[in-house]
Amino acid sequence: MATAAAGAGVPKRLILVAMCFAATSICYVDRVNISVAVIPMASRFGWSATTKGAVLTSFFVGYLLAMLPTGMLTARLGGRRVLGAALAGWSLATLATPAAAFAGLPALLAVRVLMGTAEAATFPAAIGLFARWLPAGERSRAVALNLGGIPVGTVVGLSAAGALIAAFGWPAMFVVFGLAGLAFAGLWFVVVRDSPAEHPRVGAAEAALLAEQAAATAPAAVPWRVLFGKRACWAILVNHFASNWVLYLMLTWLPSYLHDARHLDVAKAGLTAVLPWLSLFVTGNAAGHIGDALVARGVSLLTIRKAMQVAALVGSAAALLLAERATGTAEAVALLCVAMGFLGLVSAGYASNHLDIAPRHAAPLYALTNTAGTVPGIVGVYVTGALLDATGNYAATFALAAGVNLIGALIWLLWARADCVVD
What we know:
Layout: H1 12-45, H2 49-77, H3 79-103, H4 105-119, H5 122-133, H6 139-168, H7 170-191, H8 204-216, H9 224-228, H10 231-260, H11 266-272, H12 274-296, H13 301-325, H14 329-343, H15 350-357, H16 362-391, H17 395-415
Helix pairs in contact: 1-2, 1-3, 1-5, 1-6, 1-7, 1-10, 2-3, 2-4, 2-16, 3-4, 3-5, 3-7, 5-6, 5-16, 6-7, 6-11, 6-12, 10-11, 10-13, 10-15, 10-16, 10-17, 12-13, 12-14, 13-14, 13-17, 15-16
């Protein structure tokens, strides 16, 4: 991603991307840890699968309601302040989780809603920072690396959660992760700036490289009516929803699936669950590099976006359907790795497309589409719990996710664009 024009040393925009990646990783460490902790918590408090679903879903209620406001705040205040405050907020909520759980289910649900409210700022703020810091030829890689924080954070959260729970009990896990998040929030405010112009140590060569980019993405009033009138925006919205259906199914229910359907203990379920997320990280970053390389070679950006997104959804759907038919644990985990590997291709699909079609409004547009992308965290996660209580297995949940993917792929083929449609 570095260029000769950037001058000596590490370009400050690369440091910015690395900080956003770290923030996203911490976001998902704190989001996913309860997916492991909910197993001993359910045993301790006598929860049914439906109650587990409600606990896992409550986070997404706050996440959904706060998504558009945080996107608009980012457009007004800048990503540095919004994401820094969010980091501190969700870390405090993580620390408060054990006390809330012992206080009762309503208190726990309230803390999870507050945590979701804070984490809603993560992606809109990062996308807003990328729009002001990054040249067009570096965006797919930056978006891919930032999305790579999802599997990295999930891997760390799942593996560390299982070890911490086994050694110290589930409350200790929330304390460790919460304190780590607060420490990073302090570092964020020291390192990050909203734009190259505000950074005291951006070199002259890098500043010149980014001057035109900053001018083209200066804050402006969000034309919501225009955005809602563009099929290209609806294509992203539908595909954000479809992609996140599988993402949140795996994020919240994979440890329980491995424990209940494949009969692994809590520690092994948490450890085994990291493998599909490693697959997502590898393919997501590979897709970002391949996408930018194809752009440099003159391949149509629309061709790249359509090919990556359709392959992501169709490939993931097929692997999910095969996984449920697997006879052994190793076979099932391998197919789930394939499913998540295909899903990683969205980094060069719908995820980067926000910056293609509306670079000046990328942060609020991402907030809008991620609002739709949060619905699976509420509906899909809760429905999974209800389907499990009704059927006793995961076949219906995997089939439903595959169907959602196929609908998303069709809409993408029909409506996606890659040129600027909203100035």
